[in-house]
Amino acid sequence: MTITDVRIRKLPDEGKMKAIVSVTFDDQIVIHDIKIIQGAESLFIAMPSRKLPNGEFRDIAHPINSETRKLVEDAVFEKYNEMLEEE
Fold first, then answer.
1. CA-closest candidate to residue 76, choices 26, 19, 12
2. H helices of the chain, where?
3. What are phi and psi of 17, to 5 degrees?
């Protein structure tokens, strides 16, 4: 599996959410609404989720293992940092 495109929509700097991301895999499938969020110590990504009736949130798309999560994180943060450098 190869990440073939990463598209980032930067948000205003007021909140903890910094950007919304779409990641395309093998030019065949895309996951929208991945969020870049400022945590207590660093940025992290949050996969798209939905709110359950009990108030909890559950991911609706996510990597199955840590290697794939790292692959997605690295691609997203690389593109995000490139975008920040261009500004």
1. 19
2. 66-86
3. -80, 120
The encoded tokens of residue 24 equal 């395309």
pTM over 0.85: yes
Domains and CATH numbers, the chain: 3-86 (3.30.1120.40)
Joined together, the tokens standing for residue 73 give 């994180």
List, in sequence order, every beta strand (DSSP E) within 1-87. Answer: 3-10, 17-25, 29-38, 43-46, 49-51, 57-59
Determine the residue type at 68. Answer: T
Distance CA 87, CA 74 (A): 20
What would the pLDDT profile of 2-59 be if each residue is shown by its tens digit? 999 999 999 988 889 999 999 999 999 999 999 999 999 999 999 999 999 999 999 9
pLDDT at 1: 84
CA 55 to CA 35: how far, in whole Å? 19
